[in-house]
Amino acid sequence: MSNKDDILKKYRANVRERFFDERSGKTGFDMPDLSDIKAITYPNPLVQFVKMTEMVGGQVIEVDPGRDVNVLIKELFPDAKEIASNLPEITIATRNPDTAGRARDLNGTDVGIIRGKFGVAENACIWIPQTMKEKAVCFISENLIILLPKSQIVNNMHEAYKRIEFDKEYDGYGVFISGPSKTADIAQVLVMGAQAARSATILLMPE
Amino acid sequence: MSTAHSNAAKEFLKNQTYAKWHDATFWAVRTKRDNMAYGLEEWEQLREKASAIKRHTITHLDEYLDQFATKAEENGCIVHWAKDAHEFNEIVYGILKNHNVKKLVKSKSMLTEECGMNPYLEQHGIEVVETDLGERIIQLKGQAPSHIVMPAIHLNHDDVGELFEEKLGSEKGNHDPTYLTYVARLSLRNEFLTADAGMTGANFGIAETGDIVVCTNEGNADMSTSCPKLHIAAIGLEKVIPNYDCLAVFQRMLCRAGTGQPTTTFTSHFRKARPTANPMHIVLVDNGRSEWVGNPEHWEALKCIRCGSCMNTCPVYRRSGGYSYSYFIPGPIGINLGMLRDPEKHSGNVSACTLCNSCQALCPAKINLGDQIYMWRQQLDEFGTANPQKKMMCKGMSMFYGSEGMYNLGTALAHWANIIPSPIINCGLNPWAEGHKMMEFPKKPFHKLWKEIKK
């Protein structure tokens, strides 16, 4: 017998011995109904999303219709030399995570620009399915910019998990990101920029 | 009559300034947790649901494990099953050897700590680099974690500063946490880029999709898996949950309960390897869990999601620190898991509890942590770990309290003990005067006062 069979058999036997109920013929507990969770909602989820993003150390900028994001990004990071992105509307990119030879070649990226699908008002999470060959760009960049459609904000994680999807081509990975990388591991002092991006800027895009 | 825990705690309490800081720091984390919990009207409902999901999942885990493994294999992952710590270490080493791995970067995993994986791999010539900052600090220091979420909490910024001066060549005398974090960032960045493999633990495994879900603030799990060509995920059996609807409940609670944040910065879903990497390996580890589920009084310890809130709130943990416990996980959940692991070795921890039940009032999965500690205490005699002095005292007390005559005589005479000079009474042989002043016996015992009042 394989390890898997051994382990599952032993587990099953112990559960049955402990939890089998002769009267009902059932073993163990039922799954609770989760549809009645009275989860928090907000009168204006976007306002809450902005507030939470700032609370977790991120920056939010609303992009006016017709504004060129490339110009905006140049204004935000005038000293940036290496800009990595595979987004078609980003014309100032000097590197492309789709064509990087190795993931490590993306090291030294000053600004990485990626797209988020939707934001979550309660905790500033943004769902980012992998849509590039090397996901390293989402973490290795010193500064991260996430383009997020302004209309795509849900209230809470229950709503979020009902709608997350992976990319069709890069279907192996997705992540919720809420603000910049951080740590308080040295004497409980909060420091932004532990191992991943040191700053996170969310650009709210018009439809 | 001191236990192993209280003896170890004496060491911790020698530095009173630090002990006070430790207590206050964890109380501050507890307060942050309260603010988060009170900020959600549905918090208590979430706890109910979390507990019910776990009760269901743990009593049907064989089915969910099978579903999880099948799904992960469909996704293209290679799934391994380890019966115990030794098998786990062998499996991991086997995978690394096959891929000719010299250096492994890893994000925090209490499971690898449980299995003693790092020393095993190091003995076999593999360099293991911890990438969570706290874990990295204690690795450089040659220590074990003193808290499951804040592993280096026992060190202050001067300790870390001096350590980095020696190990990472940081500026002499610059012990600013921001600077030190940056030094570690640069050093770890180099490790990420040059490692041959990355390992993550798992906060959750999702049966319906085969996802491994990892929650970090630093992004180190993502960095560990973004550059190396190989990803190994280590997951304890009990971390598998049915689906995303269940995950939403736990994701919302994990960080709010643990560190008082609304979420971890990163909630990463790993379903299969990156396009340019080798297939991802998942190692499912039993190591006692299939046994524990059958324990009538203690199976609910398997509901734990390792948020750390029970230790943050515990008055004994806050005042004695992680190293005072003999098991590698301290605090209320650690006391219980240690007893499940090896009661003879870890009985010294069960006294590290005032039975205040603050832990179980907070636990997001509603584990009856304090009740379980109480039940373990009743079993100490079976394990042969009951304290003989206390046993004798209990026998004496049941004799004393069982006889009305002896009780009346004893309580009437007790106040004569007050005139014994204090150097004798506080000499250290009297356990009632340990760590505090000996109490004074009243001239009139309570039952007599009561009778007079009722007249």
TrEMBL record, chain A:
Give start and end of each LUD domain.
Answer: 103-205
InterPro entries from the xrefs? FTHF_cligase-like_sf, LUD_dom, NagB/RpiA_transferase-like
Q: Which SUPFAM superfamilies match?
A: NagB/RpiA/CoA transferase-like
Tell me the superkingdom of the source.
Answer: Bacteria
Q: Which named protein is this?
A: L-lactate dehydrogenase complex protein LldG
TrEMBL record, chain B:
Q: Tell me the GO BP annotations in alphabetical order.
A: lactate metabolic process
Q: Give a GO molecular function annotation for the protein.
A: 4 iron, 4 sulfur cluster binding
Q: Where does the 4Fe-4S ferredoxin-type domain lie?
A: 294-316, 344-372
UniProt keyword annotation of Electron transport present: yes
Keywords per UniProt: 4Fe-4S, Electron transport, Iron, Iron-sulfur, Metal-binding, Repeat, Transport
What's the domain of life for this entry?
Bacteria
- InterPro entries from the UniProt entry: 4Fe4S_Fe-S-bd, 4Fe4S_Fe_S_CS, FTHF_cligase-like_sf, Helical_ferredxn, LUD_dom, LutB/LldF, NagB/RpiA_transferase-like
Q: What's the name of the protein?
A: L-lactate dehydrogenase complex protein LldF
Q: Which organism is it from?
A: Xylanibacter ruminicola (Prevotella ruminicola)
